[in-house]
Write a structure and sequence with these properties.
single chain; alpha/beta; 2 domains; 10-stranded mixed β-sheet; 35% helix; globular
């Protein structure tokens, strides 16, 4: 079997997605997701101009060699654009391999390690009461694990909380919006949020929270310590992780489990965090971390240090990546949990898929390969629309982490 062609589809059924389709001389094709929220066209250009010409004529079964070729052969390694492009190729090749062998991808990753993939949903509200109502709705839907975010009194907007009456999608059309941030207000408010959540719903639901990189290590340590009575499943991205050793300070002060890595691109971004056991969950996603080939190595390395996976799964990843994450999660032994944000109806229609949700778990389905298709005619009805993620400033105007 040889690769005979490849094309990139950029569409916006509710939000922007970049999808790679690789075709072979046996009529089998594979799909890969190359979406990078707010920088989609950079990845599309990288794939079209630099990657596709290097794929023609290659054997699609040689996933390891092609991965190394695209990573080492480019010389300028790593980075979100490069790794998203490599991931798109890698996942498409695994899709081809599964279809050619007439088996779902999880069987190529070692087979099932569990019956289903535990997922967590997002609950949010403008204030605590509204957030708790949303938690209740998700419990009724069957979720057993829920991330809880609420507006902070005194701040006009807060990460994780949508505008009134809208689904949560942070990327907005036009130039980046600017929000305001106060760590002091946030630190006073968040323990109250979880005190009330536990009071209303008890201990039987897993609760998660995302700090979204906004704290310093000692601030995160304070928050983690104050949240200990509420037994969080994890506290996510408490600090920006460029300085991996910052997590040492947090770890020394709190037993609240820590998760990070959704912005990581390679194993090197989290090597020290994993090896020194400063985190409990590594959140790298298949699309931003180079595909199955690389993320499997990350998971195997993490397993040596009792670190589990918790892959990013927001709606800025297409159903192609959600399917890939479910195949990965059902197969990898040290799986922890999978983020799940339901896509809008337009997205689901453009990407018909076989995965499903039931009683807090998701299932990848048993179709050969990924089990996801791309309706190219329907996708053409949703052209790309430039959109940016917001930026954040402290109350004095200082630019800070969003």
């Amino acid at each position: 079997m040889k690769i005979t062609g490849a094309s990139v589809n950029v569409c916006s059924p509710g939000r922007n997605f970049v999808t790679l389709k690789i075709e072979t001389d046996e009529g089998i094709y594979g799909l890969g997701d190359g979406t990078l929220n707010g920088r989609e066209l950079a990845v599309a250009s990288y794939i079209t101009e630099h990657v596709i010409p290097c794929l023609i004529g290659r054997d699609p079964f040689q996933t390891e060699d092609i991965w190394q070729y695209l990573y080492r052969g480019a010389y300028w390694r790593r980075g979100p654009v490069t790794m998203a492009a490599i991931a798109a190729v890698d996942v498409a090749l695994w899709d081809i391999k599964g279809k050619a062998l007439n088996t779902p991808i999880y069987n190529l990753l070692g087979g099932r390690s569990r019956g289903g993939v535990l997922v967590y949903a997002h609950a949010h509200g403008a204030d605590i009461e509204e957030a708790l109502d949303d938690v209740g709705k998700h419990i009724e839907m069957g979720y057993q694990a829920i991330r809880v975010q609420s507006g902070v009194p005194g701040l006009a907007s807060t990460y994780g909380v949508p505008k009134a009456g809208m689904r949560y999608e942070p990327a907005e059309k036009g130039l980046p919006s600017e929000g305001q941030w106060s760590t002091e207000m946030y630190l006073r408010h968040t323990p109250k949020l979880f005190e009330e959540t536990r009071r209303r719903f008890g201990e039987n639901v897993h609760l998660l929270h995302d700090c979204h990189h906004r704290l310093t290590p000692i601030e995160a340590a304070r928050l983690g310590k104050e949240l200990e009575p509420y037994h969080l499943f994890w506290m996510e991205d408490p600090v920006a992780a460029e300085l991996q050793e910052g997590f040492r300070v947090i770890r020394e002060h709190t037993t609240t489990p820590l998760a990070t890595g959704e912005v990581f691109n390679t194993i090197w971004d989290g090597q020290e965090l994993i090896q020194r056991q400063w985190i409990d969950y590594i959140r790298m996603s298949i699309v931003h971390a180079g595909g199955f080939t690389h993320l499997k190595k990350v998971a195997d390395f993490a397993s040596l240090y009792h670190v589990r996976t918790g892959c990013h799964g927001a709606t800025d990843l297409s159903p192609v990546t959600m399917a890939a994450a479910l195949h990965f999660g059902i197969a990898v032994h040290n799986f922890g949990i999978q983020e799940h944000m339901a896509h809008c109806e337009e997205t689901d229609a453009v990407f018909p898929h076989g995965y499903s949700f039931k009683a807090g778990y998701m299932y990848p389905g048993d179709a050969p390969g990924l089990g996801v298709e791309l309706d190219e005619k329907l996708a053409a009805k949703y052209p790309y629309e430039r959109a940016y993620l917001p930026v954040n400033r402290k109350l004095d105007g200082t630019l800070t982490d969003w």
